[in-house]
Amino acid sequence: MVRYSAILLTSLLLLSCAQKKEAVVITPENIREVLTQYGKENPENEVIIETKMGTIKLRLFEDTPLHRANFVKLIKEGYYDDSDFYRIAYEFMIQGGDLKKKLNYRIPSEFNPKYYHKKGALSMARVDENNPNLESSAAEFFIVHGTRYADEDIDIEARNLGIHVTPEQREAYRTVGGYMTLDGRYTVFGEVTEGLDVVDKIASEKVFNTDQPLRKIPFTIRVVESK
What we know:
By secondary structure, the chain is of the alpha+beta class. The protein has helices at residues 2-18, 31-41, 65-76, 151-161, 167-175, 196-203, and strands at 46-51, 54-60, 84-89, 93-97, 121-124, 141-144, 188-194, 220-223.
């Protein structure tokens, strides 16, 4: 009897551990409250993307808290389990997510002038139509591939965009590259810390004229748990 009780207790504990905590549904009305609380409870800021071409490591910025919390939440809840890089534009970006899944909210923009679309920047996609506040997609993200700029091109882009370019940004766009036209229009919330060569490989894949890669590029993604 004691042995049976011990087996039953062990089984119940295993079942309890196996069950996932019920996900909180985000709506346009509760998004700030839910993501702010989730961010406090889940402070992780490192993410790893695995592909057949190699590994990409990302650092999420703490001062874009809504985007960081949302990304971590989706990863932990398995949203990206069947995702791939479905849009590729050489010298522009590689975009990932799952277009078959729809979420009924957008993330409020979190523009920060110190974060810009240099090569390796992690940013959220968005729709242009009926989006005056430039809110981000709930789940579709992209990593900048970009191209190097000459000084005169940086000056032209800065004037056209109405932005100030710091010496650090100028040096990055000249030497590392990026895509300046996105600055101040899409929220950068992280960056590649390892694996820019993998971004290069993916960005070099052959595509249809719709920017869809000829062969599927699936990925797995996970959050590095805080110590």
